[in-house]
């Protein structure tokens, strides 16, 4: 049985914990009230583009000081008061606790798996952050602010939303009742200084030989399709290939959320629009692709084909709009063809499979396959030509392949690189007609390392 002193100590501990919990709850209530007061008082001023960031922050801090003076219920130390004001200012002016992550140039993706569980991607690897939201209400407040800036909303009626930050970063949010333990928030950061050809070469994504070849294909008006999984770098690669487009051509881009950063003079960017709260007014990629054909484009760049727009894209490629670029989700060049067949059928037309394959083989000249390998790097693994039809089968041939047989180094990184298979593409004559001659040594065969062997096997992460 516990002694009297032990019982007294236990009672004091319980009383202290209860007081601390009550105080913490009171602070959070105060935080919510102050946040509401500032937003209500300042209103449109928060979105006044005429004011500098420093001026806006000064206004917010002045308003917070005034609001705190009106609150007499909870005594705060000077340190608690300063921390509370800074936290609320971050919520009002920025995106709360994830602001430092969004401003960190090394972070490429932020994943909020509920208020207390935040992961980030750095150098292709996921790590857990020690940053937390206060609670689910705090997380929802930040999500509402993000989607509200571009006229979207997320609630029980529409619990999923795609949005973007003012800098172009891609945002996805999903809330209860669909998100168990949520809300969940995923932000793929937008690079202010987009990666260029030399960056991809330095990262090992491709080599100079492959870059020169892809440049020739884009300038030579070949239809190029970039395929890969989620987060494999398709959009980044598309942006680099789009930079090869001539400056004297009319380029029209079509995207779900505007991410491409083309620096040519004559670029028109189109972006889809979701349905309103009544479920009406949606403008899809397919609608935009159809409209693009009436805008006299020299080149069409579609951010991603994921539905019936694949049929419209193929028809455009086959009716004089050659030199088009797009991306698609697929695991290999051969899977690209099957996926295209499926997407074309999603257009709602009962087309024979052979007719679809003829459209695909005639439209697509080149498939660039990119993958995120398990060492965190993103590499182009195949550059594959679509040759044509043999019977009912579309024939393909690899021009460049990644040599996985070279194994891993002591740090678990792949030592392989893209190598030429020694096959010269059949579209060389088409490029010649455009005045582009591919040097013979571009396709000089390179030996591939033999796969297998204990030194090539490792479970190290």
Précis, in short:
The chain is α/β, with parallel strands linked by helices and 461 residues long.
Could you characterize the architecture of this molecule?
With 461 residues, this protein is of the alpha/beta class. It folds into 3 domains: 1-93, no CATH class; 96-192, 2-Layer Sandwich (Beta-Lactamase), CATH 3.30.450; 197-456, Rossmann fold (3-Layer(aba) Sandwich), CATH 3.40.50. It contains 13 helices and 15 strands. The chain has helices spanning 4-42, 53-70, 78-93, 99-103, 136-148, 197-203, 208-219, 234-242, 285-292, 309-317, 333-345, 353-363, 428-433; strands spanning 107-113, 118-122, 125-129, 160-164, 170-174, 184-188, 224-228, 251-255, 267-271, 299-302, 325-329, 366-372, 378-390, 393-402, 418-420. It has a 9-stranded mixed sheet, with helices on both faces. The protein has a 6-stranded antiparallel sheet with strand order 3-2-1-6-5-4. A hairpin with a 2-residue loop joins strand 2 (118-122) and strand 3. Helix 1 (4-42) packs across helix 2 (53-70), helix 2 packs across helix 3 and helix 11 (333-345) crosses helix 12 (353-363). The chain is elongated and about 80 Å long. Mean pLDDT is 82; it is low at 7-23 and 453-461.
Question: Mind describing the biggest β-sheet?
Answer: 9 strands, mixed
Shape: elongated
H/E series, N to C?
A: HHHHEEEHEEEHHEHEEHEHEHHEEEEH
Q: Approximately what portion of the residues adopt beta-strand conformation?
A: 15-25%
CATH architecture of the largest domain: 3-Layer(aba) Sandwich
Question: What is the number of strand segments?
Answer: 15
Based on secondary structure, the structural category is alpha/beta
Count of alpha and pi helical runs:
13
Q: CATH superfamily of the largest domain, called what?
A: P-loop containing nucleotide triphosphate hydrolases
Binned, the helix content reads 25-40%
Gap from first CA to last CA? 52 Å
- Rg of Cα set: 27 Å
- Give the averaged pLDDT, no decimals: 82
Task: Give the C-level CATH assignment of the largest domain.
Answer: Alpha Beta
CATH fold title of the largest domain: Rossmann fold
How many structural domains in the coordinates?
A: 3
């Amino acid at each position: 049985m516990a002694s009297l002193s032990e019982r007294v100590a236990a009672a004091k501990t319980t009383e202290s914990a209860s007081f601390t919990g009550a105080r913490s709850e009171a602070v959070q209530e105060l935080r919510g009230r102050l946040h509401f007061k500032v937003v209500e008082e300042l209103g449109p001023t928060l979105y006044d583009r005429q004011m500098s960031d420093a001026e806006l922050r000064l206004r917010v801090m002045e308003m917070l000081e005034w609001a705190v003076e009106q609150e007499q219920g909870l005594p705060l130390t000077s340190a608690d008061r300063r921390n509370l004001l800074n936290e609320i200012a971050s919520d009002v002016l920025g995106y709360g606790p994830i602001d430092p992550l969004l401003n960190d140039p090394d972070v490429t993706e932020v994943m909020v798996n509920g208020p207390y569980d935040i992961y980030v991607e750095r150098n292709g690897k996921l790590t857990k952050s020690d940053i937390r939201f206060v609670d689910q209400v705090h997380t929802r407040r930040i999500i509402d602010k993000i989607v509200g800036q571009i006229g979207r909303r997320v609630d029980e009626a529409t619990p999923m939303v795609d949005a973007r930050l003012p800098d172009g970063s891609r945002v996805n949010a999903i809330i209860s009742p669909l998100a168990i333990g949520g809300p969940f928030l995923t932000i793929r950061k937008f690079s202010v200084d987009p990666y260029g050809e030399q960056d991809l070469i330095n990262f090992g994504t491709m080599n100079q030989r492959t870059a020169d070849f892809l440049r020739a294909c884009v300038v030579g008006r070949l239809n190029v399709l970039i395929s890969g999984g989620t987060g494999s770098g398709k959009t980044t690669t598309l942006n680099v290939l789009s930079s090869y487009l001539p400056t004297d051509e009319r380029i029209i881009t079509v995207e779900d959320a505007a991410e491409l950063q083309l620096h040519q003079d004559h670029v028109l960017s189109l972006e889809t629009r979701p349905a309103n709260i009544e479920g009406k007014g949606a403008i899809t990629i397919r609608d935009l692709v159809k409209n693009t054909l009436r805008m006299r484009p020299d080149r069409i760049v579609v951010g991603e084909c994921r539905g019936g727009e694949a049929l419209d894209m193929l028809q455009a490629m086959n009716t004089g709009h050659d030199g088009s670029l797009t991306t698609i989700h697929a695991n290999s060049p051969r899977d690209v063809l099957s996926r295209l067949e499926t997407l074309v059928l999603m257009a709602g037309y009962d087309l024979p499979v052979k007719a679809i394959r003829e459209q695909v083989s005639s439209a697509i000249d080149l498939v660039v396959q990119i993958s995120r390998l398990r060492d965190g790097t993103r590499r182009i693994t195949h550059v594959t030509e679509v040759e044509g039809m043999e019977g009912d089968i579309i024939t393909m041939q690899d021009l460049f392949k990644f040599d996985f047989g070279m194994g891993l180094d002591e740090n678990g990184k792949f030592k392989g690189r893209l190598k030429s298979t020694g096959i010269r593409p059949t579209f060389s004559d088409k490029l010649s007609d455009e005045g582009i001659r591919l040097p013979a040594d571009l396709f000089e065969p390179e030996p591939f390392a033999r796969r297998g062997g204990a030194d090539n096997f490792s479970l190290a992460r």
